[in-house]
Amino acid sequence: MKEEKENGLSGSLLFADVPKEKRAEVCKAVQKELVPAHSIIFRQGDPGDKFYVITSGKVRIFRKSKEGLETDLSWLGPGDSFGEMALLTEKTRSAYAEAVEETHFLVLAKDQFYRIVKNHADISLAFIKQMSDWLVRDELIIEKEAERQSQAPKVSLVDFLVIISVSLLCGIIFNLVNPNGVNVLPGSLTEEPISSVSLSMAIEKHKQGKSLFVDARPVSFYEQGHIKGAVNVPSAIFDLIYMMELSDTEKQKDIIVYGRTLSSLYDLEAAKKLVLRGHKNTMILDGGFSAWEKKGFPVAP
């Protein structure tokens, strides 16, 4: 039994890099669970009470609209895990989870989950990385759906609250393991208007090489194409990326942010956060990346 649990955790993408001795403590806390094929594991709106690691089988994660339309978010298999979002944000489940076939799990109950996250920094950081990946994935799905419908649907209130909650949570957990900490609540939301910069002025600043260009879109869009030399700072995980990439940036340096898409104003969100951190010379690029690219200005794949 113990060996079976250990093999299940060591095969998990989340726990693979966690030191063996810490993984052993998790092993003591997990319980085995079997869910029959075509069974709902939990429903959208249910309270979060468990965290799941798949050891065999397949799970479908999806959302359902008020009209009953289903949107697949992901298909998970052995080594994957899920269910941490509701536990860490203390919100209800944001999606459905269905066992597509007979599926075996290692399960952490809510109280055990909290104890392990609180006591083990390595595991906490692993959860932060996984949640960041999930948020980027969800944003990409929302963006693709917006493009498909050729209109600009807004992110639901539930999605917005989850993103805000996770952003705060990431900062709190990071503070526990990093002496420099993350500025979780940098004052109230700024009401100062954010300046814009024209394409002609932006290209001159780009040629001079004295301005920092920030791409606030999800990483998947950044990888498809971006302004040459731009730093990717996805809005959903701004606090963590700022700490790692931009915290040493001079406050007086010109920063040009872009990332306006059909469904989200990523540029405005990131620009406001930069201003709140003292970067008063933050500007939003007129026309965004698409206008820059159409002009034939320097881009990178």
Layout: helices, strands, pairs:
Blueprint: H1 2-10, H2 20-29, E1 31-35, E2 39-42, E3 50-56, E4 59-64, E5 70-76, E6 81-82, H3 84-89, E7 96-99, E8 103-109, H4 110-119, H5 121-149, H6 157-177, E9 195-197, H7 199-208, E10 212-215, H8 219-224, E11 226-227, E12 231-232, H9 238-246, E13 255-258, H10 266-276, E14 282-285, H11 288-294, E15 299-300
Strand content: 15-25%
Structural class: alpha/beta
C-alpha Rg, in Å? 21 Å
The biggest beta sheet is recorded as: 5 strands, parallel
Q: How many discrete structural domains?
A: 2
Q: CATH class of the largest domain, anyone?
A: Alpha Beta
CATH architecture of the largest domain: 3-Layer(aba) Sandwich
Note the overall shape.
elongated
Helix content: 40-55%
Please work out how many helical segments DSSP would assign: 11
Task: Report the end-to-end length measured between terminal Cα atoms.
Answer: 49 Å
Low-confidence stretches: 179-190
**Strands of the biggest beta sheet: in what spatial order?**
9-14-13-10-12
Strand segment count: 15
Name the CATH superfamily classification of the largest domain: Rhodanese-like domain
- Mean pLDDT figure: 82
CATH topology of the largest domain: Oxidized Rhodanese, domain 1
Question: Could you explain the architecture of this structure?
Answer:
By secondary structure, the protein is α/β, with parallel strands linked by helices. The chain has two domains: 2-117, Jelly Rolls, CATH 2.60.120; 120-301, Oxidized Rhodanese, domain 1 (3-Layer(aba) Sandwich). 43% of the residues lie in helices and 21% in strands. The protein has eleven helices and 15 strands. The protein has helices at 2-10, 20-29, 84-89, 110-119, 121-149, 157-177, 199-208, 219-224, 238-246, 266-276, 288-294; strands spanning 31-35, 39-42, 50-56, 59-64, 70-76, 81-82, 96-99, 103-109, 195-197, 212-215, 226-227, 231-232, 255-258, 282-285, 299-300. Strands 9-14-13-10-12 form a five-stranded parallel sheet. Strands 1-8-3-6 form a four-stranded antiparallel sheet. The chain has a four-stranded antiparallel sheet with strand order 2-7-4-5, with helices on one face. A hairpin with a 5-residue loop joins strand 4 and strand 5 (70-76). Helix 4 crosses helix 5 (121-149). It is elongated and about 65 Å long. The N and C termini lie far apart (49 Å).
